[in-house]
Amino acid sequence: MKLFVMNDTGDETHAGCQAVMRSINGQIARVPGVTVIGRHKVGAFEVDEAAFAKADAVLINGEGTIHHSTKRAKHLMASLLEAKRQGKRVLLVNALFQQYEGPKDLLAGLDLLSVREPRSAAFARVYGGQPQTLLDSAADPEFLTPGKAVPLTSGLVIGHAQKVERFQMAFNALQGHRQAMFKGSFDDIVATLRQADVYITGQHHGVYAAALAGCPFVAVRSTSHKIEAFIDWTGLPIPLCQSAGEIEAALNFAMANPSIYAELQDFMAAQRVLKAPMIAEALGL
Question: What pTM did the predictor assign?
Answer without folding.
Answer: 0.95
